[in-house]
Task: inverse folding
């Protein structure tokens, strides 16, 4: 509702809660990795990292904190296995370094959205969450953060 009591024609769409700037993505890497490590340590069925793996991960995280790597929002889109009418997406913000995406937050799931089965999944998802107007877009990122749209062939 507007201040005059009339319904708004174009209300702001709900946002996808992801870090949206390069600095926010970089700052969120270590706390997210620490939270994941604590979760994995609490699970008795998950094998622990070897010392070599732990050292390699720490070196990569140190490189990220030093400014290495490119901030990226990765949108993995797929359609349902049966008819192709339903499209879904998993959206992750992170830093891509050495062909690996270090997540800065838990992935956000969007969908399912109904559409024509002849349409590619990324076209449908992009139409629903990406707008030119920042106030109407659900996925808002700064220009220095790249957005990668990927059609996953498997559901």
Result:
């Amino acid at each position: 509702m507007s201040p005059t009591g009339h319904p708004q024609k174009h209300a702001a769409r709900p946002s996808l809660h992801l870090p949206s700037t390069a600095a926010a993505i970089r700052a969120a890497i270590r706390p997210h990795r620490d939270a994941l490590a604590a979760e994995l340590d609490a699970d008795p069925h998950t094998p622990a990292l070897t010392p070599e793996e732990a050292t390699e991960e720490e070196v990569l995280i140190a490189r990220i904190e030093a400014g290495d790597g490119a901030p990226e929002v990765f949108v993995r889109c797929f359609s349902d296995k049966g008819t192709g009418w339903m499209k879904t997406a998993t959206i992750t913000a992170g830093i891509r370094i050495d062909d690996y995406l270090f997540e800065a937050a838990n992935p956000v799931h969007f969908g399912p959205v109904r559409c024509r089965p002849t349409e590619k999944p990324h076209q449908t998802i992009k139409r629903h969450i990406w707008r030119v107007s920042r106030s109407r877009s659900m996925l808002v990122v700064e220009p220095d953060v790249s957005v990668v749209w990927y059609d996953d062939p498997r559901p």
Summary: The first strand starts at residue 70 and ends at 79. The chain is about 30% helix and 25% strand. The CA atoms of residues 63 and 69 lie 8 Å apart. The two ends are 40 Å apart (CA to CA).
